[in-house]
C-alpha cells in the first residue's frame, strides 16, 4: 500500500500534473496484485483444511472399523468403542485449531522477518568508543581539509578549509551542487567524514565528542519546515519540552509571530495540519525560528531559510533571523546575495572547495566569482524592477485611456449624440438633470 501513502502525501503533485487517473491505475494494479496473492493464500489454506479433514476422517473411519471389528468378535466391550468415539471427538477440536494456528504462525514469521531486517540495519554514524559530552559550547567551528563523497566516484567536498569565530556570521554561497548543504549535514553529523576533521571549540566532532551533545548545541532553520500534525504549542515546545508558556510567547515575540498566533481562532492551540499545511510558508518559517530560539543553541544553521518566500515576507523574516543570530555563531546558505552583505565572512564554494572568501566588499574588489554573481543578481534585480515599473506605467496609461474614452463618451452623450442615440433607441429625451446625469455616471469606469 506504499503507492496509496505516496500519492496521498504528495497529493499536490498529483493535482498539479492531472495524474489522478494514473494514480488510480497504480493503486488498482497494486490492489489486483494483492488480491492475487490473497487468492493463492486462501487456496493453500483451503487445500490444507481439506487435507486435514480428509486425514482425520480417514483416521476416524479406520479406527472405527478396527474397534467395531474387535467389538463384534468379542475382543473388547462396547464401552471401549464409545470411549474411542468420545476421545476422537475431543481430539478433533485441537487438531482443527492447527489450521488457524498455521496462519497466525505464518503472519508472525513475516512480521518477525521484517523486524529482523530492521535489526540488521547498522547505523554507520555512531559514537566512537570513549568519546565525551561536549562541554559548554562557545561556538567556534573549524573545517580542516574536509573530504567527503556520497558516491566514491563523485566527491562532494574536496578539502574544505574554513573557520567561523564564535558569535560571527558566515555565509556559504555558490552554484548549486557546490557542497553547501553537505557542509551542514556533516556538521550536524548525518554522515561520517571521508577525510580531514571538523572541530567545535577545538573538539573533533567525530573523535572526541558524542553526536548527541554536538546536535544539542546546533539549531537548524531549514528551507522547508515540517511540523507535526499537532497544536502550535506542541510544535513549539518540541524544541524544549521544559520551556514555560511565557518562554514560548517570548520566543514567538522575537520571531514576530506571537500577535499572529493570538489572532488565530484557537490561538496557540491551533492544529497545524499534516506537515503544517494549514500555515503559510512565512508562518512556518517563523515557527521554526521561534523553536530554534527556544532550543537556544550556540551555533545556528540557516539553510536557505527564506528562499521559498516572497521578497516582502523575506524582509520581515530577515529581522527575526537577525535577532536569532545575535551573539551566536551562524552559518547561512543564501541564494539571494543581498541578504548576506553584512556577514562577517562569505565563502564561495565551488566543486567542493572554498573558491573565494572574505567580506562582501573584499569579494567585490577581487572581481572573481562572487563579483560576477553579484553583478548578475543586480542586473536581474534591475531588470525585474524595470519590468515592474513599465507594467505599472502601462497599467496607468490603460486606466487613463479608459478614463478618456468614458469621458468623451459621456460628452457625446451629453451633447446631440446622446439625444440622437436616445431618439434612435426610442428613449425619452427630457432635458432634466437626472436624465443627463444617468448615462454620464454609468460611463465612468
Ligand atoms: P548545494 O547545497 O551547494 O547545492 P549539495 O551539498 O546539496 O550542494 O550537493 C553537493 C553534491 O553532492 C552534488 O553534486 C549533489 O549531486 C551531491 N549530493 C547531494 N546530496 C546527495 C545525496 N543524498 N546522495 C548522493 N549525492 C548527493
Report on this structure.
- The chain is of the alpha/beta class and 445 residues long.
- It has 2 domains: 2-120; 141-376, P-loop containing nucleotide triphosphate hydrolases (Rossmann fold, 3-Layer(aba) Sandwich).
- Helix content is 56%, strand content 14%.
- The protein contains 15 helices and 10 strands.
- The chain has helices spanning 2-9, 11-16, 20-72, 78-120, 180-187, 211-216, 232-237, 245-254, 258-263, 281-295, 311-325, 360-366, 369-414, 416-425, 433-443, and strands spanning 141-151, 154-164, 169-173, 195-200, 203-204, 218-221, 299-303, 329-333, 345-350, 353-358.
- A 6-stranded mixed beta sheet has the order 6-7-8-3-9-10, sandwiched between helices. The chain has a 4-stranded antiparallel beta sheet with strand order 2-1-4-5, covered by helices on one side.
- Helix 11 links the parallel strand 7 (299-303) and strand 8 (329-333).
- The two termini are 57 Å apart.
- 22% of the residues are buried.
- It binds adenosine-5'-diphosphate (ADP).
- Adenosine-5'-diphosphate binds next to strand 1 and helix 5.
- Distance separating the two termini: 57 Å
Low-confidence stretches: 414-445
CATH first level of the largest domain: Alpha Beta
The tally of beta strands, per DSSP, is 10
> What is the C-alpha radius of gyration, as a whole number of Å?
38 Å
The CATH H-level homologous superfamily of the largest domain: P-loop containing nucleotide triphosphate hydrolases
Average residue-wise pLDDT = 81
Structural class: alpha/beta
Portion of residues within helices? 55-70%
Separate helix tally: 15
- Give the overall shape, derived from the CA principal axes: elongated
Each distinct ligand:
adenosine-5'-diphosphate
Any idea what the CATH architecture of the largest domain is? 3-Layer(aba) Sandwich
> What is the CATH topology assignment of the largest domain?
Rossmann fold
Largest sheet: 6 strands, mixed
DSSP strand (E) fraction? 5-15%
List the domain count as a whole number. 2
Strand order of the largest sheet: 6-7-8-3-9-10
Order of helices and strands: HHHHEEEHEEHEHHHHEHEEEHHHH
Amino acid at each position: 500500500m506504499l503507492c496509496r501513502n505516496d500519492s496521498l502525501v504528495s497529493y499536490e503533485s498529483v493535482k498539479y500534473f492531472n495524474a489522478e487517473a494514473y494514480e488510480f491505475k497504480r493503486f488498482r494494479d497494486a490492489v489486483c496484485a494483492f488480491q492475487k496473492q490473497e487468492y493463492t493464500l486462501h487456496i493453500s489454506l483451503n487445500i490444507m483444511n481439506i487435507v486435514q479433514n480428509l486425514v482425520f476422517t480417514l483416521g476416524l473411519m479406520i479406527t472405527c472399523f478396527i474397534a467395531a471389528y474387535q467389538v463384534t468378535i468379542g475382543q473388547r466391550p462396547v464401552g471401549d468403542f464409545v470411549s474411542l468415539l468420545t476421545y476422537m471427538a475431543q481430539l478433533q477440536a485441537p487438531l482443527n485449531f492447527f489450521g488457524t494456528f498455521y496462519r497466525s504462525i505464518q503472519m508472525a514469521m513475516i512480521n518477525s522477518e521484517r523486524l529482523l531486517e530492521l535489526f540488521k540495519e547498522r547505523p554507520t554514524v555512531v559514537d566512537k568508543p570513549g568519546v565525551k559530552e561536549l562541554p559548554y559550547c562557545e561556538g567556534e567551528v573549524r573545517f580542516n581539509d574536509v573530504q567527503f563523497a556520497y558516491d566514491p566516484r563523485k566527491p562532494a567536498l574536496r578539502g574544505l578549509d574554513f573557520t567561523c569565530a564564535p558569535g560571527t556570521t558566515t555565509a556559504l554561497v555558490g552554484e548549486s551542487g557546490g557542497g553547501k548543504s553537505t557542509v551542514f549535514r556533516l556538521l550536524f553529523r548525518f554522515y561520517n567524514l571521508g577525510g580531514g576533521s571538523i572541530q567545535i571549540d577545538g573538539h573533533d566532532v567525530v573523535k572526541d565528542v558524542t553526536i548527541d551533545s554536538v546536535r544539542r548545541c546546533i539549531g537548524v532553520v531549514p528551507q522547508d519546515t515540517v511540523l507535526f500534525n499537532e497544536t502550535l504549542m506542541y510544535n513549539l515546545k518540541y524544541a524544549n519540552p521544559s520551556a514555560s508558556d511565557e518562554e514560548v510567547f517570548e520566543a514567538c515575540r522575537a520571531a514576530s509571530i506571537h500577535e499572529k498566533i493570538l489572532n488565530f481562532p484557537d490561538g496557540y492551540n491551533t492544529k497545524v495540519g499534516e506537515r503544517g499545511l494549514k500555515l503559510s510558508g512565512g508562518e512556518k518559517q517563523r515557527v521554526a525560528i521561534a523553536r530554534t530560539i527556544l532550543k537556544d543553541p550556540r551555533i545556528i544553521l540557516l539553510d536557505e531559510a527564506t528562499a521559498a518566500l516572497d521578497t516582502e515576507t523575506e524582509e520581515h523574516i530577515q529581522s527575526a533571523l537577525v535577532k536569532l543570530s545575535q551573539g551566536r555563531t551562524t552559518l547561512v546558505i543564501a541564494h539571494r546575495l543581498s541578504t548576506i552583505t553584512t556577514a562577517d565572512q562569505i565563502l564561495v564554494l565551488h566543486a567542493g572547495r572554498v573558491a573565494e572568501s572574505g567580506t562582501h566588499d573584499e569579494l567585490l574588489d577581487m572581481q572573481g566569482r562572487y563579483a560576477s554573481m553579484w553583478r548578475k543578481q543586480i542586473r536581474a534585480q534591475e531588470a525585474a524592477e524595470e519590468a515592474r515599473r513599465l507594467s505599472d506605467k502601462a497599467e496607468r496609461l490603460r486606466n487613463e485611456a479608459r478614463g478618456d474614452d468614458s469621458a468623451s463618451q459621456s460628452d457625446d452623450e451629453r451633447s446631440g449624440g446622446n439625444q440622437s442615440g436616445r431618439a434612435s433607441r426610442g428613449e425619452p429625451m427630457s432635458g432634466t438633470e437626472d436624465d443627463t446625469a444617468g448615462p454620464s455616471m454609468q460611463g465612468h469606469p
